[in-house]
Amino acid sequence: MKRAxxxxxxxxxxxxxxxxxxxxxxxxxxxxxxxAQAAEAxxxxxxxxxxxxxxxxxxxxxxxxxxxxxxxAKNQADQAYAAAQVRMTWAVTNNVPDTYPSEWxxxxxxxxxxxxxxxxxxxxxxxxxxxxxxxxLADVTERLPLPRYYAVRLIPERRDCLWRIAEYPFVYGDPWxxxxxxxxxxxxxxxxxxPDLILPGQILEIPSIRGETRSGTWDPxxxxxxxxxx
Length: 230
Description:
Elements: H1 2-20, H2 26-43, H3 47-93, H4 96-99, H5 101-119, H6 123-136, E1 149-151, H7 162-167, H8 178-185, E2 203-205
Antiparallel strand pairs: 1-2
């Protein structure tokens, strides 16, 4: 009867493990098969065989749970790694390497770790590093290069002039740099000898002064990178 008691305990343990399985995998199916065989041996009075089959059933149940755990971890890694790849692609498309160099450097290093972990099938590490990539780029938003052109606006209360335009942060952030605008746009002014005479709608070129990249016409609805400090 001692063997019978041990068998019942083993079968109860195996049944508990089976209930934790989430996928119908080959280990799980084998454990069910062995469990049934153990029950048949027990009914036939072959307690040694029943105990051995029950032990095998429990081992396959354990393998099943390990398999399920691995598959769940891989699924988590797949989703996290894919999300990190999408975010990195978005970052490249939106000039993040240039506009957020520190955040990009950190994200790139973490992406390399995520890729290495994924390649080695270290699923938990791959998911963790992938999440850290997203964290590194969490506060990154689309920012355009500084504008190369500016359309003079009609602002009755504070009329656009080269002095005020040069003061805009997306231009030079310094009104004393107005002369740079004047020299670059003399040919398009109504009177090349009068820097104060500019008209609404007139397109002015903004030359680079610190090697900064400039492109496009200023759009008041878009965020721009900051002018490099001297």
